[in-house]
Structures are given as C-alpha cells and as structure tokens.
Amino acid sequence: MAIKKLLIANRGEIACRVIKTARRMGIATVAVFSEADKDALHVKMADEAVAIGPAPSSQSYLVINAILNAIRQTGADAVHPGYGFLSENPVFAKALQDAGVAFLGPPTGAIEAMGDKITSKKLAAEAGVSTVPGHMGLIEDAEEAVTISASIGYPVMIKASAGGGGKGMRIAWNDEEAREGFRASRNEAKSSFGDDRIFIEKFVDQPRHIEIQVLGDQHGNVVYLGERECSIQRRNQKVIEEAPSPFLDAKTRKAMGEQAVALAKAVGYTSAGTVEFIVDGKRNFYFLEMNTRLQVEHPVTELVTGLDLVEQMIRVANGERLSFGQDDIKLNGWAMESRLYAEDPYRNFLPSTGRLTRYRPPQEGTHPDGTIIRNDTGVYEGGEISIYYDPMIAKLCSWGRDRATAISAMASALDNFEVEGVGNNLPFLASVMAHPRFRAGDLTTAFIAEEFPDGFHGVLPDETTARQLSVIAAVINQRLQTRAAAISGTIGNHRRIVGSQWVVRFADQEHAVLVASKAEDETLTVTVSEKFVLRVSSNWRPGMTHAAFSVDGDIIGVKVELTGTTVRLRMRGIDITATVREPHVAALARLMPKKLPPDTSKMLLCPMPGLLTSVLVSQGDVVEAGQPLATVEAMKMENLLKAERRGTVKRIAATTGASLAVDELILEFE
Questions:
Q1: 285/310 same-domain check
Q2: pLDDT tens digits for 252-262?
Q3: DSSP codes, 427-493
Q4: Is 289 a catalytic residue?
Q5: Which of 289, 297, 302, 337 is the catalytic position?
Q6: Do residues 519 and 608 share a domain?
Q7: What global pTM score does this model have?
Q8: Which of 59, 102, 523, 561 has CB atoms 3.0–4.6 Å from 568's, for a disulfide?
Q9: What's the pLDDT tens digit per position in 476-520?
C-alpha cells in the first residue's frame, strides 16, 4: 500500500529536506514541534503540524508516546525519523510496527544489531570484516576506562555506544585524559541519547574517515552508492564532506563497497544506511560503525549519483524493488558539503544563539558555468537559534565536473552567503576551501587540529589581496562621499568637491590610493602605492551589504558593513575593518594612541550562552593551571572550563543551574 501521509519525527533542515521530496511525490506531510520550534521553518512547510512538548528534546522529540499521539491525531501512515533523536531507536521502530505505521528505515532487528556500536563491531568481526582493536564490553567507571585504555595503548577513542554526530566522543592520549574523557562522554551520551554506555577502541593515527552509502530493498537487493570523505572534523564532528574521496582508488572503493553490502545483507538491512570506515595512509580500512539511518552528508552522494535518497527510502518502504543494480551506479563529477554552524570560530567555535537578523543564502540551482549550488536549511531570516538543539544552520553543497571546480564553486558560494545576528563558521569554512593542503586532498581527521593548532583567528590577506581590498574600500568610500556631496548640494557659491586621493588603513597596513575616475562611473582606474594600476567595476551602491567587485578581471564577492567612518570587508575567511581618510587626516590619525582592551585576566567569563551545570571550586580555593573550574552545557555539548594559571578564588558570581550569556562572570580571582 502506497504511503499517503508522512510524519517527520524530527526538526530543522532534515525535516524540511524530507518534506520537499514528499511534496514532489504527492505525499502529504506532518511536522512535529516543541515549544521552542513553534515558529520553525519545518512547521511552516508541512501540511499539518502537531505540538509534542517542551523545548528540551528529552521532553519532546525523544518522547515516543508524543510521536505516536501525533500519528493517531493526524492519521499518518508512515514516519521518516531523519537523523539523531529516535532515528536509531529500536523501541521506536517496534512501536511503529505494532501500530501498523511504516518506518522509513531498516527492520528493528537491523537497528538492534547495527545501531549499537558495541554489538555492531562484534557482528562485523564475526562476519570477517576488518575492525579496529578495542574493548567492546561495557565499562563501569572512569578507573576501569583508564585500565582498559592503557591495555589497548594510547591514543584511544572513547565513544558512546548509542552515539552519533560526534556526541559522547573523546580522544585520550594519557590516563588523565581517559579518566576525564570517560566522564564527559558518559554525561553527553546520557543527555543526548538517554543511554550512557561507553566503549573504547584504538585511535588510528593519521586516519581518514571514509564512509560507504548503502541502499537495500525488501527483496534482498543491496547496492553501494560510492563513498564520502568525511575527514575534515572538529571535536569528532564532521565539518566538510565530499564525494568521491580524493584518496581512494577504484580497487579500494570496490572492496569497501562490497564489504559494506555484505555486512548489510548479513543483518537483513533495507532502506538507506551508511557503513563507516577508518582508512590509513596505505588504504587499509577498518570498520567503525554502521549508521542505520540517513546521514547528514547524504546530499553529496545525491549530487554525484543523481539519486534522491529520501525518495528511495519512501519507495523501499512502499515495498518497491530497486530500479537499478550495482552496475548502473556511476559517479559523475565531484560534490562538496560545508556545514554552516551557529558557532563563533574566533572563540574556539563556542556555540552561539540568538536571532538571525540577516539570512541570505547564495542562489541555488545550476549556474552558467555548469556548477550546481544546493542549500539544505531549516531556518529563515528573523528566526531564532536556540540553546536546545544542534547548532547547524544549513548544509551548503556544490557540484562541479571535478574536485577543483567543486571547491571553487563552494568558495564563491560561501562568499555570497550572508548570515548575521549569531556567530557562525562561514569564515572558517572559506579558509579551509582556500587552504593548500585541502586543495591538494591531503586530508586526515587531524587536519583542523594540525592546521589550526591555536584555533581560528581569521585569514591574513596576501599582498595582492590586500591591494584589492584597499581598492574596494576606497571605491566604496568615494561613492559614499560622492552621494553625500550630491545630497548636500551647493552652499552659497561653493559646492563640495570629493577628492581622489585616500589612505586606506587596516591591521598594520597602509595603502595610498588614487581614484582617477568618478565614483559613479561603471569602471574606475585606481592606482595603489603609486605603482599598481587597477581597473575596478562593481554593482555596489550605498545600502548594499554584499556586492561583487571586478578588480583587473578577478571577481571578488565581498560582504560590506559600514560603521561610522570604517568599512568592514569579509571574504574568503578574511575579515578586515578599514578606515579611509584623506592624506592629511591619515597623518594626524597616526599620532593617536591605541585604545587598550579591558583587563579580564582575573575573571572566568562564560564563553558562550549556556547552562552552568557545575562549579567545581569554592571561594578561597587555590587552583593550579589546567584545573577544572566549571562546566557549561550548550547545544547538547558539555564544555569544561579550566584555569589558565595558578590563583586564588576571590568569589563565585554565578550559581549552578543559571542560564548565562556570553562573557557573563562566573567567578573572580584575587
């Protein structure tokens, strides 16, 4: 019997993405929402919507009875679980089966067998699949975790058995990190999944994270749809994915794919699923886990195969056979996915919350050069990013005929993506796209840690880019001055004259710029430092927050923000605030003293909006450098705050359980 009404037991961008395919197939949709999501985009998009509880997911999206009540209320005959929440919960799948409702996922037995990380590794080993050495039994406490870790040999990976999405996962390089990592992983696992079981495995040094997409029907047919390279990760959370992998050869791809299919068949798998592998520098691969659901990064597979995986999941649930075999699967071109998160890259990627005062994605679809841009999102301009859920704003995808083209298309799309109101990782994503090592495909899961060891502090423009930005700032300023002169008009017999010579200063650089043509002209001739002559044209006009500039033929997409007498320009991970002055004013400005920032060295400030879950010291305590001081929970992640130096606690300013804002005082030192 064909599905007529589909309930999506999820939220955000994945709910919106499922709704789009269901709508195209003529299937009615039902959204569910918590109190925090009553105005969410997925609620607006669905044909019907049902409230299921308070904001915390443990009281709404994770409550099986609430979902079942929504099904009964709307008459939905099928459920798509998305990812996270109840997507890999066998109790939920069984409840749907008992209710006669189709579950867009594998059978309950397959979820039980492969959804649990410990069980799946045992079954994989029994099936002859290469697995990473580790301890598959349950671990009672932190001390047992230390003993097991030492016996396996550091480094080790501490992981939540019911985990996913990087939650409840830590790497430990010594006993203390194993002890601390076990406690943090267990707390995160219990908070995110309601299951605090933990296991430990060997961490493969210099690894790549490569996964195989599988798809099976109810008639025993299973195929693999190529691989996805997911090695660009931060805190075990994927940031950038691509398909295919720049590392695999055809032989390894075939071997991994066939092994993934064999494993899926062994557990009677149907629907879409992913078999994840760790791959070393010699292309040896080891089974990590199987995700019995749709993956966040599935769009890149769709872009290179031409298949809609949600459509395939619906067809499989309808009892249809796969309409293609393994030999029909061809990988066409290259696809990239960048995960846009509400997090501040300049503050160690701490979560950010608030209202999206500006949200303008780049244009989707096929562009004149043949590249494709796709943006899967669950937000809109004016919407709220709350503290209760994953901080993902959108998944920006690009497709090109080859890897270099896909990267260039992504870089351009990131420059054209406007997000304001919350901290976001757009500049970091852009910097990765421009990184020589990334462009060369020299990737491991340690890429971010190795290339940004001290965190992300923005990208410094090279000499050529600095000249281009100076020219852009000068042209913007001259157009503003010309507009102001036109508005003020003639006073007596005097008309304001706009000069052509400017000094542009940002960071510690100064550039003398001469704008030889009128600012309103389509193309300007601009001289920099008396020796570089550039031809500049742009569509920028006062009031525009984004524009494209052509500087000697280079097309530069730049975000523009005017504040007082400064021009802020952002592109390709570069963020500069330039002052544009007449030469005599610039000479005087050089004599002005620099304003020093306030001294916060004796304060522990909350680095993000979040819940203060514990204060680990008391007034009068003497603490040592590196000693834990407090924990703050934000967006399902637990963050441990440590002392930077030795000191004595003067006072505790915040209480456990308090909701804190960014830079709110937690405690103060003498």
A1: yes
A2: 999 999 999 99
A3: HHHHHHHH-HHHHTT---TTHHHHHSTT--------HHHHHHHHHHHHHHHHHHHHHHHHHH-EETT
A4: yes
A5: 289
A6: no
A7: 0.84
A8: 561
A9: 998 898 888 888 766 556 667 788 899 999 988 999 999 986 656
